[in-house]
Amino acid sequence: MNKDLYAQKFAELKKEEDQLLINDIKEKSYWGIWIRYLIVVLGFLMFGFSFLRDMPLSLWLLLFVLFYNIMAHLLLWFKQKPGLRQITMTSVVFLAFDTLAITFLIYITGWVESPYWFLYLVLIVVSGFGMFSYYSLSVFIIALFSAVFYLVLLALAFLQIIPIYGASFNLSPRELLLVINNKAVFTTVSIFLFAATIYYFAKLLSQHRQELSQKNMELLVTLEKMKDVDRLKDDFVSTSSHELRTPLSIIRENISLIIDGVLGKVNETQQKLLVSSQSNVDRLARILDNLLDISRIESRLLTLNMQETNLVELVDKVVAMFKGRTVEKEIAVKLDCPEPIVIWCDPEQMLRVYINLIDNAIKYTERGGEIIIGVGYSDDKVVSFVQDNGVGLGAEDLSKIFERFVRIHPEDEASPKGTGLGLSICKGIIEMHGGNIWAESQKGVGAKFIFVLPRRRKHGERKS
Amino acid sequence: MSEKVKILIVEDEAEMREAIKLRLEANQFEVITAADGSEGLSKARTEKPNLIILDIMLPKLDGFRLCRMLKFDENYKNIPVIILTAKTQKTDINRGKEMGAEAYITKPFKSEELLAEINELLAKK
């Protein structure tokens, strides 16, 4: 994926986010609609109880709420795919109607003396946390509507443009004006103070939500990038593997043909050199195997192909593989495998483990040395070791050698041998099997590489 | 009349083809070769070999599809197929099995293994 495609992915994710918001607002709007219906129904019930029979205006109020609620319901129903802006604006509009309804209620319950002005505050909380944590300024819009409607109501009633209900005032106009001023100031200041507080918290919430959402989108896009890189890498590994193996196989087969005398007799020296070439081709192939699998083993992404395997047979196989080299270097190979050991493991990967361990043992053992390979049971585990009497390692190196690319520098050599991957791979494989591997050694005496595996015959079943 | 067993090698690398041919002829097999997938398919049909050694990365028609085509054909499905390829991934080995190949050997290979596999499959028939 190039830059454009990533930008596209970002845009896609943003659209998804917006859609989630829209759905959320829609859901909350429906809540509001149902609550209003409920209030209207309760109101009608109370009216039926003749509570408000003397106040026909309350009937008008209920009808008014019912009316705009139905409009809101229809609007929400018919607009199947609202944009974010649209639905936000619509919600603000209907909250403004709610403000009007509250003002109406205040009017018929004693205007200046009405206790219901707190409902403005309730509405501010609803708008702040309910629908508009994405659009916190709406809090101030509702506050503004509330204050304006309230003040207009006070003015209209004071100027006797509309009749006064629910309260009798035996005050002179001047005194009344004072009361109204006080109430007006008190209520307006309360509304805006409250609005400011709610705004602050709503804004905080909204900021957090936005930050989280942004981080989330960035992570998702990064994930896509990493998946792409991973795919590229796998592709590369697969192609390189093939490209490198093909010539190796030609070289090997050609040499093999000559060694086997298919193309004529071969004298002893020629034989020796050719066998040596052949084993080096095999060595190259092994290094290739290691190199190409190392990243998958390291990240434990390699899938194990578990089956019942006889470890002793694997050991025999590997010993046979290295016969050429052990004979050439006059190294004696002893086996300490008293009985066949069958466990649940991946035979191909365990083969690699033994190949790497024995390869190392031969590499670091001098001419005429000895290698001992053992496999056996020990309580609920299988223990196996590869021991040599070669140059050994110092104590400080014993754990380091299992790290990737770490090679030990033998004293009498110009530079360390090998790629440093073999033991790292062994460790990865053993640990993926749920086992452990470590080394014991003394410089100049030899080294012993030991690993344990859980003793399992079948998947999940453990032998005691 | 030739009693020799006929083996078809489908491999695009000329040197590899030559080396396997030499090996098989030294072991008393009659060898026919093909350098790409479609040549491999037509030679399989016309020559009716006793066994096919098949590479995967072939021009014109890849080894997997060639194998599947032969295995789906009544007339040729009984010819054992050994896939011989540098592709070593588990997914490839599984695919080989799915396509009906009797054996899957990875390169570089030991000629003893190849010969053993050939003899085993021929004996089974």
From TrEMBL, chain A:
Q: Does the keyword Ligase apply?
A: no
What is the native source organism of this protein? Answer: Candidatus Saganbacteria bacterium CG08_land_8_20_14_0_20_45_16
Q: Which reaction does it catalyse?
A: ATP + protein L-histidine = ADP + protein N-phospho-L-histidine
GO MF terms here are: phosphorelay sensor kinase activity
Q: Which domain of life is it from?
A: Bacteria
What's the Enzyme Commission number for this chain? 2.7.13.3
Write out the entry's keywords from A to Z. Answer: Kinase, Membrane, Phosphoprotein, Transferase, Transmembrane, Transmembrane helix, Two-component regulatory system
The enzyme's first-digit EC class, named in words, is: transferase
Task: Enumerate the spans annotated as Histidine kinase domain.
Answer: 239-457
Write the protein's name.
histidine kinase
Give TM regions: 33-52, 58-78, 90-110, 116-135, 142-164, 184-202
Q: Write one Pfam family the protein is assigned to.
A: HisKA
Write out the coiled-coil annotation as residue ranges: none
